[in-house]
Amino acid sequence: MGRAYRRQGNYQGALSYYEQALSIRREVGxxxxxxxxxxxxxxxxxxxxxxxxALSYYKQALSIRRELGNRxxxxxxxxxxxxxxxxxxxxKDALSYYEQALTIYRKVKDRYGEGNxxxxxxxxxxxxxxxxxxxxYYEQALxxVQKVENYSVEVxxxxxxxxxxxxxxxxxxALSYHERALAIHKKVGNRVGQGKSxxxxxxxxxNxxxxxxALSYYEEALTIHRELVNPREEGNTVxxxxxxxxxxxxxxxALSYYEQALTIxxxxxxxxxxxxxxxxxxxxxxxxxxxxxALSYYEQALTIxxxxVDRASxxxxxxxPSPPPPRFKCYPPPATCEKKFLPTTxxx
Length: 348
Known about the structure:
CATH architecture of the domain at 1-69: Alpha Horseshoe
CATH class of the domain at 1-69: Mainly Alpha
CATH superfamily of the domain at 1-69: Tetratricopeptide repeat domain
Number of strands: 0
Radius of gyration: 20 Å
């Protein structure tokens, strides 16, 4: 039941169910069940952006699973901790946890877990702008999950491959992958996934310069995100809508959307997303000739880059040219600065 509520985006319902289950499992001394439930509560908090609570529950789950020698469960929680660190922009620790999880999955021959973690490693490299290496991991992951017929991970990987093609400018291939993902989400009734795929299709149209189609998909995605109270994805889509208006020279409307995104980023303590939006706001002010305001926002973004130890993006910001290039939505370029996907989080 808890998982069903979570997939529907009903996070409060999921938490309520999991907390009742946790109480019962502790009462009857079911340590394995306690570990499962603690991990699942951590997933819900992660999706809601409460990283501190998520990490606390994950660590409790990890301790129990190690105590019981539950290797599959240990791999699951290690993978989820890696995801948490990835979302915080701590890529070094994210890779460390993912690699621990991958080692366990291969030892116990858990093909589903292996595919899931290969996908998540790909996401780390995508976040660092290393798209070739990301694609290398995505393709390995896709082969594995298609064999085990796990739709949830398969569809995430399909989306991620679509993103790489989008970055490379192969928009037809990108649309093909994202539309394939959308069809799967609709077939199984995954509303959260539908919202993500609609956003991703909007990104492709935006990069092609077809802003009307992009807005249509974004607005459809935004309706779903708000209906499900999914603030992280809402922030992503609001930010992308801001870019469409900025590209059309409607800076007032663009700033309105960017400010909404910035508020969400800060509420979620999403430092990577906050950096993206600060960059985008800086670009709007620079396009308007307000260099003082632009510099203020770029400096805030640079501070976050240094916190995240993102040297590649830092170098890009430090080398911001005077005239704004017409196709860039922010600094660094769109492929690096726009957030499109959540990594896979896994529950047993």
